[in-house]
Structures are given as structure tokens and as C-alpha cells.
Amino acid sequence: MKRILYFSILAIAVTLSSCKEKLNDESIFPYVSETLDQNSYTFQLDSFVKRSYLLPYNVEFRYKMQDISSDMNYNLVPCSYEKAITVAVLAKHLWWDVYEAQTGSKAFLQKYGPKILCVIGSAGHNPSTGTIKLGVAEGGLKVTLHAINNLDPSNVAMLNEYYFKTMHHEFSHILHQTKNYPAEFRTISAGHYKPNGWEERSDEEARSLGFTGNYGSSQEREDWVEMIANYIVMSDAEWEKILSDASKGWKQDDDGQLHQLEKDEDGVDGVAVINQKLGMCRAWMQEAWNIDLDALRQEVQYRQTHMNIDSLRNQVLTIEAK
């Protein structure tokens, strides 16, 4: 059975220290201006994240692991400097720049984006369930991405599964914490969520019940953000595979082997349910945020298949000390 991926969301109140200066009138979170050390080995990346994240968006990009930024329940390792450069330019290209392009200004992420983006080298392993933690959104203020040391920018499928989808998944959590998704969504798959033991379901079984994958079947809020994140990053062929799986019946035997049934016996039209949920997501993104979900998806699809990682990294590597 393939490795199960695990996301989590924490409703944590975070208090940030204040100072005299604010980025803009709409942001309530102050930033502290730092003097960069031009003799430091990390000067180029520090300069890039200051001008690309801190100054325009008031976002602190944390790649030097701190105890305060880490979950002490896991054995974690820092992100390497080279991987930190890569994820810094990719997150900007495939997250911040995408929303700026779709909303027409920096104001949307200045107001609603996380104030801290923390990257960790390793994943958080959960030996009791066989799952791994890839991302956390904390109280709408901080997003943490794990397993960055495994990042391979030449493998778009892997980038989507482990990183890009995580980015959109966690940001969707922040958005629905700000403006609730429709109450009707809670009734669509009532009775089919599996908060404990969701990892025992195959993706195919979950799709037959109207979810995009097994983690989306754990609870309704994960169902909501998995619907959005998967739709954004998956190609047309990958999305059609989800719908194809949803149209069939599946069963796992005691050895974990998956079998397609001659007849779908769960009593759920998985394709219709997924399309109904996707329609709600489209309407909510348009009505709550004035964002066209399909246009957002098209922007991401184009960027992730046409990006030049060397050119993106050169935004950092060509910075010179003054």
C-alpha cells in the first residue's frame, strides 16, 4: 500500500510582539526591519526573502529552524540552505505570485496570507498510524511545510503531492477560517467521514464515496480543502482519474490488497458528489473572495509546467552585496 499523507490544522492563538512600524494600513501585524549581514553565507537568501516576502507581504520566511517554530513531538531536522533557496522561489512563484495575478494586487495576501512561512527539512512521522505530517496551518498566522530536504524540482508530480498541494491545502484552511464555507457542505457526506482510521481506506474507496482521497474522508474541513487543493494542482488527466475511480466500487481485503468490484455497492454516486462539492467550492471562492477557481487552477497549471527552476533560483544567486 502506498504511503499515506497527513495534514493537520491547529487553532492556536499566536501573539506577536509589536513595534513602531507597520507594512500597510490593512495589516495588523507589525514587522521588524533587520539589518542584513553582507558577510553572511546566507546573505543572498536573506536578501531575497526580505524583498520578496517581508517587505511586500509582511511575511517572515523561516528556514533556520527554531525551537519555537518546531513541533517538539517529532524528531525534525533543519532545511538545507540549497533546498531553502529552491522552496523560497517556488513558493513565491506558485503561491504568492499566483494569487497576486488572479486578484490584481498584493493586497489580498497582505491581508489574508500567513505572516510566517516556516520550512522544515524532514517530515513528521507518526509510527502509530504509518502517516506523515507534511503541513500545518496554525491559527491563520503561520504555515509550516515539512520534508523540504526531499524536494526535487524536476519531478512535478512529486512536487504537487508533497509541496504544492500542501501549500494550497493549508492556505485554503486559512481562508475558510476567515469566511466559513457553506453549511450545506456538511450534509453531503454526513455519515461517511472516518476521523479515526481514515488511513485504512484506499484513495479509490474514498473516491467512490465522493472524496478526492482518503485524507479528505477524515472530516469535513479536510474534505473541503482537499477538494480545492487537488483541483488546483492536478492535471486534467489526474482529475479524470479521480472521477474514474469515483465511478467504480472498491474493496480492500485483510492483506491490504485492493480489488475493483463488478458493482459499486456503497450506495453513493461518487462522481456526482465530487462534482457537487466542487461546484460549492467554485461558488464560495467567487462569492467570498472574488476569485475564479478555474482561472486560479489554470494559472497554477501553466506555471508548474513552464517554470525554469534555474532561472527562479538565479533570483537569489545573482544578488550581490552592496
Determine the mean pLDDT: 84
Characterize the largest beta sheet: strand count, sense, and whether it forms a barrel.
6 strands, mixed
Unreliable runs: 1-33
What is the structural class? Answer: alpha/beta
Radius of gyration equals 20 Å
Shape: globular
State which percent range the strand residues make up: 5-15%
**N to C succession of SSEs:** EHEHHEEEEHHHHHEEHHH
Number of domains in the coordinates? 2
Could you describe the 3D structure shown?
With 322 residues, the chain is α/β, with parallel strands linked by helices. It is built from eleven helices and eight strands. The protein has helices at residues 43-57, 81-103, 107-112, 156-178, 185-188, 203-208, 220-233, 236-246, 270-289, 293-306, 309-317; strands at 4-10, 60-62, 116-119, 124-126, 131-138, 142-145, 249-252, 258-261. The radius of gyration is 20 Å and the shape is globular. Helix 7 packs across helix 9 and helix 7 (220-233) crosses helix 10. The chain has two domains: 1-156, no CATH class; 179-311, Collagenase (Catalytic Domain).
